[in-house]
Amino acid sequence: MKPYVIAEIGSNCFLDDDEQINFDNAVQSIHGASIYGASAVKFQLFTSKELWGVDDTVRDTKKFNLPREWLPKLHEYCEKYKIDFMCTGFSVDGYEAIDPYVKMHKLASPEVWDNNICNYLFSKDQPKPVLVSLGCVPTFSLDRVLNMVRKHDILLECVSKYPAETRDYDLHCVRYLSSKYDYRWGVSDHTLEDTLAIEAREFGALYFEKHVDFLADCYNESHPETPDSCVSINRHQFGGYVLGIQSTDIFNYDKIKVEAKEKYGRRRFNNEWYRPL
User: Fold this and answer.
1) Which domains does the chain possess?
2) Which pLDDT does position 229 carry in this prediction?
3) What is the pTM (predicted TM-score) of this model?
């Protein structure tokens, strides 16, 4: 199966106080994602109330709130540029608004603990695959996820660190779970390089989510900061990221085991083991 790379735009289109300029930034990001090889482009739909449980007067995120009326418009541009549209929700109401425009849903790791959202996404009436980030799910709580996910859902190894290092990720755990329970898997990559993605691809990962700022080198003046700036790579880096994933082959572990046994294995003779010369 061809690797599926998601360009996470998040708040990186909200660089101005003018809503039309920000919308144009979002469209430009969609176009950039399609040019640089992404399979999908993803936004986030939230309010301060949904994220923090408080209104905008307490913790102001309004500048970075994706207007709901943008959803059909952004979906249309994704169809125009032949790329999948995705959007993460943070409430059942948000997911209901997103649902008509996506082929699959993304569940952010903190929302794994939201019973209302999980009951909606994993219900029999919701057939679309769900990408589940495991960043806020400790190993001893993985049973909660395994009891929810279905065979067509996808597990994403993730850490709640922005930015992260490759060593922060545990690919062996998610690879073991996907192998044992026959799930597809991938990484929500918060690093600023491609080492993690290439290693995950060698292990058999199929899905890759990466924060990208396609406008980072398009501004003559200083680039405004966004909540996602610290974890985002630019468009040229993203192009190399996609190419690195696409050019990396999955290890054939059965073949490697046979070759290793033939070359380095021990052989039995007169009830004793000898390493062959």
Assistant:
1) 4-250 (3.20.20.70)
2) 92
3) 0.90
